[in-house]
Task: structure prediction
Amino acid sequence: MDAFTTPLLAGTATGALLLIAALGLALTFGQMGVINMAHGEFLMAGAYTTFLTQQVVTNTDLSILVALPAAFVVAGSLGLLLEVSIISWMYRRPLDTLLVTVGVSLLLQQLAKDIFGAQGDPVQTPGWLDGNIDVFGYHWPYRQMFTILLAIAALVGLGLLLKYTAYGRQIRATVQNRDLAETMGVSTRTVDRVTFFVGSGLAGVGGVAVSLISGTNPNLGTTYIISAFLVVVAGGLGQLKGTVIAAFAVGIVTAFFTDWFNSSMAQVFTFALVVIFLQLRPQGLFTVRTRGLA
Amino acid sequence: MTEGLSHVFESRPRLVTGTVLAFTAALSLSACGGTKSGESSAVESCVDTSGDTVKLGFLNSTSGAMAISEQTVRDSLVMAIDEINADGGILGKKVEPVAEDGASDPAIFAEKIEKLLTGDCVAAVFGGWTSASRKAMLPVVEANKGLLFYPVQYEGLEASENIYYTGATTNQQIIPAMDFLKSEGVKTLFLAGSDYVFPRTANKIIKQYAEELGIEIVGEEYVPLDDDDWTTQVAKIAAAKPDFVFNTINGSSNVGFVKAYYEQGLGPDNSPIISVSIAEEEAPAMGKDITGQYAAWNYFQSVESPTNDTFIEAFQAKYGDDRPTSDPMEAAYTSLYLYKALVEKAGSFDVDEINASADGVTFDAPEGTVTIDGENHHIAKTALIGKINSDNQFDVVWSSDSPVEPDPFLEGYSWWDPSKN
Result:
């Protein structure tokens, strides 16, 4: 039985982590057409925020709860800074944003190395996350359950924001038809900035979960950015439903391949599957029908 | 206003997704990027030792991912030079170091060693850490008939006229570790490693020797170097309940492994770990108390020898009381003194003359007496197994009776069959 439960549960947790990372990307890629390769470094920023929080809040049990909002604000602010200083000059040039943000990503990694050193820093697991329950022979770590809860919370929070708040309506309006939204008095520039802040902040929250797996290190973001983009592209642009399904599918499929072969081959197979899927369905799982005039 | 953009996204989704996919593919491939060997024709050595000084090259990564480890090697090289100069130099000549940064990139190692040998005309180069950096430097140092001293334990199966290996080869670290496990009565062993040349080669040797010793390998798992999540793999270890785990993981991946290991209820009481890449520097950075776990090296800070006391004292006086000393640092320090002994025995800085009289050159190193093997250019070293205590120091619990003769190609081991997997 554990040959089935282990990859299923571990894969769900990986999928949850991918979802948190991909939600922000789906927003910025879907709404603004910005291909932000520096998104992984917002995960890293979240992880280092956790480390720094633990230096200040010495009560480990409490420190993670403090780190979550702190990481959201730190990564969100970094995202906002990136949007205002660089990306806002590049709208309507998606391939340029790709190149520029790769540069920003390298820059942030080197910055982290200079500030914190090339070797990672340890993050203490709080007592209430240190343990596991036995599920059909798999000792399911509390940490993985926590990651899944975090992803659900991020998803529900984002869903409520999009559905019930004024900003949410403006974001949806902008995604559907930017021009028309502007003529209706929506400040799409402000909407873009809010979206970037929220999307990057979510990556920061994901960074807290990553830091519980392996502590911090300057290259931490590069591990997740590729899978996160796979999830966004496979899920389809403009709708979170596709991102959710794709994240868990990629996480669980990778976990099963890892169980059957090893994790290097699992990456190859998962990548190949997504490529084949996109050949058959280039638009991804779901797409939103926009009302653009083109 | 945004028609341009929506046009790109609606009518040409293939273009954009294709670009993103191609780009991410390129990114993931670049992680395992190949090494470029330097191109150079054989030239006459330009080393000039007629003056009062002799130039030596230090080639370590002082930037990039490997900097944290290689900087410690650089520190002990600098200390050795200072000591040697204070003591009159080599053959009466003061040593003048030329330092270069390998930048954690094998291609840059190849480029810089060529510059050191042909531009700066150094008599010998000290450095390198990853096997990729050594493999990149090898053709360059051979083509230029130079000398390289490489201070890190590695996967063996190599010997060059132009390289001296002062770290352990597999029969001085991996094989003794297996002998230790046998003496502990271990019956089942689980192999966990990073997915690259050193762990793959080490595990190939471990599997063949385990068969010889009657130890059953109950699992073998690899995770890429840049991937830190070991949860799924560690679950397999927990299910297999091995007597011991042989850990050949490198770098930050160790942190994810150790976390997942304790999370799954494993520990030194049920399935202890023996590592070949966790030393005094790494032990405190695991984010977990790893007291009671084991490591196989040829030097620990806790080794008791008169030379080690002075080595530690001098190092901490120079760089700070909180700095631990570790195996690669000691091997680098030793490599400079071995070079001095080699030159003084040959009476010359000439590479051919040094090689001709290299056999049997010894040095009373902090780890104990080491002796150069003139055939394969490795050194005989004592193998040690240490158990981590709560101060992140290692208590030596096992050692080989005498220094182990280096055998990089495992020719003296009848069970070894390089063609078998």
In short: The domain at 171-301+382-399 of chain B is CATH 3.40.50.2300 (Rossmann fold). Chain B is about 40% helix and 20% strand. Confidence is low (pLDDT under 50) at residues 1-13, 27-42 of chain B.
